[in-house]
Amino acid sequence: xxxxxxxxxxxxxxxxxxxxxxxxxxxxxxxxxxxxxxxxxxxxxxxxxxxxxxxxxxxxxxxxxxxxxxxxxxxxxxxxxxxxxxxxxxxxxxxxxxxxxxxxxxxxxxxxxxxxxxxxxxxx
Length: 124
Ligand code: FES
Ligand code: FES
Fold this sequence. Notes:
The protein is of the alpha+beta class. 44% of the residues lie in helices and 20% in strands. It contains five helices and three strands, in the order H-E-E-E-H-H-H-H. The radius of gyration is 14 Å and the shape is globular. It starts with a helix and ends with a helix. One FE2/S2 (inorganic) cluster binds next to helix 2. It comes from Dehalobacter restrictus.
């Protein structure tokens, strides 16, 4: 029921952890199941240089987190803001219907981290 890509990203997740000197951090919770995803990133001149995630959630949530970090690394913040939850699920070859809500965390957490970066930037 899970695509090969989902299983690959779940068993071998990319970019796991937390960046200490991050200048953008975002955390979202899934109202449906209480799972949490946290994204930290280093942005330089509006380009995402590094990104890591921590997810307390199911396998589908881990796989989508891993996938979204690969999708946005090296991209500009504007390009990353354009990546939707649906696009992440699609890049994974789809998710079972009952697991689609899990993919809502990934892009949302990235978008929150970018908002955090922009807020900090405009403050200085
Ligand atoms: Fe939370 Fe799936 S309902 S892990
Ligand atoms: Fe909760 Fe998947 S994120 S069930």
